[in-house]
């Protein structure tokens, strides 16, 4: 059998893939084995969220679809809205069928399924192709599949079903029925076949059955014609549902009607229980939300809408993280889920966000609902808005822990927060920094302008400092003109100096007084790091204060680290930062070019422009060192434009010399794309240099999509419309979103060298490389691999369909004069 021939591992992977695709694209998917010898369809994989009734409709539609096949064409989209893909063996015999339909939450409507969208059909075809390739590679052990024809033993097939199944011709006479019909109607097949409804039933029943036939014929697809409560042969009450569908021949001509009746008592019982549950929680004062085991919302009550502002239609099928405020770290939710999974219940307080953006606190209890096998089926969360309670608590807290002038934490509150963070940093083995800030000569402000003006300046300064710091940093006012900042979870001195630079920028703008007079201020700052400069809040604050006084001694308007070693590091960073400012003006940058080759015949197809920096004092500096710094201090825009213009000028020079190349690719940083005038600048540089757009390619990274993706897509489409080629650099190493990828006007995907390096020895990297190549080709994109250094890597990439490559195997990045072998002359190329 086909199902037994497939490995359990592969079945598990398919099931997970089908579940993911179903949830992402709102599809119901069934994968059935077509076992003609046994006269039945056997389910192999089914969408986890698929309803039993939908699966039954898939099987009926698949059976009808197979019966209407001819040698001329196969119309995959059936009249019922179900989309089928058949899988055949090497002899062309049917083995299995994949059926797809759009999710329908209201199965009581006559029109069961809407036609699939273009993207849904594309996804269905891709999944079918993947399964078809796998099945073609396994040994089915002589599986006795035969081709489905019109002379299939229909009687044996319908007898295999417990449901009542019968078929009528156009004149209303029964031409077939299964054994379930014989038992239910207490008549033999001979007593039923050849008779019409008036022969078998009373006038009222017969007319109802005939009207059902007409409804199915007029609708042209399967419809539910009745649903009623009956008594079975054992005198038990049952709910019966009757579905009818038109039957057509090979030419699409109507030949009769097929009907099926099944017991839906369990469905009715579940429906009644849901109605009862809905009536209970709809009137609750607390908000109630129910999710499935995957965490997707299945129901809410009115109180949920009143508290959050989200209506039922806006949240159904979505994850509750749409309410996330961003105030809780990842570890908070990890502990929450661990408690919920182990104990089955979690109670606590969470800050969430309402629809209009307001953040609010809620007391919440989350419970897991288990089935008879003790497997989680649902989660139920009951919560109450405790905003008023929190506001009252905050008022009391402000009186004791906050500075009345600036509303910042006072010394007592700051020390308490530092102590808490020190405990966390000690457990997590992390560093934190204390930054002590004192305004230079602030006493002159109070003496000359008065304490009222001085207080106004302190309030304005507190606001500016708060805006300059991140949400995780803690700003406090200790006394007078002394402020202190706690920077938790620092990774290196770079992050500290970056925060210091942001604070220093606060003083660049003058402070405007009520009489339009402006005052300029400076500040001296000292930094102490935990644990190297102290292991408690007193020693850290004392050492930061000492470092601040040293900064004052060094001339004020400065900062200093408590330890000499860190001060030296900060000085080195400052030297590099200063040199970077002068590099553009001093022409210290230059470009090298690395060739790109077609893997098939190793013919050159372009170059990637790479920036290099030689400083007269510091020497050669790696791009890995100065590019992140340029982004941090805001120089990446000017550097990026210089690279683009220089590369374009080089391309024009090559063309003038009669040399040919396809395109020069230039890397574009995320911060460049975020500028509103980036497209205009590219257009201006092309006009100034005269490089045809067909010779330019821009490489962007996946991280570009993290900031305002819609604007990014718009700008990239404008660039593509100009004739500029676009590629995704370092694909797979950052923010991978197929939803955005499919909308981008890109031409190439570049496999990052971190995946190429261990090919073909690393199984994971080879799998990722194959997946990227397959994905790119499915989207009609060229695939280029960077960092190719060995023939083994090149052979692997070539065998798996990679189009282009670059790397040390072919050439290191070179100066323009050293690239002659990769730049054929026009006549030579012709």
From TrEMBL:
InterPro entries: Biofilm_reg_signaling, Diguanyl_cyclase/Pdiesterase, EAL_dom, EAL_sf, GGDEF_dom, Nucleotide_cyclase, PAC, PAS. Residues 573-827 form the EAL domain. PANTHER family: BIOFILM ARCHITECTURE MAINTENANCE PROTEIN MBAA, DIGUANYLATE CYCLASE DGCP. Residues 430-564 form the GGDEF domain. This is EAL domain-containing protein. It comes from the Bacteria. Residues 280-331 form the PAS domain. Residues 224-276, 346-398 form the PAC domain. It comes from Shewanella metallivivens.
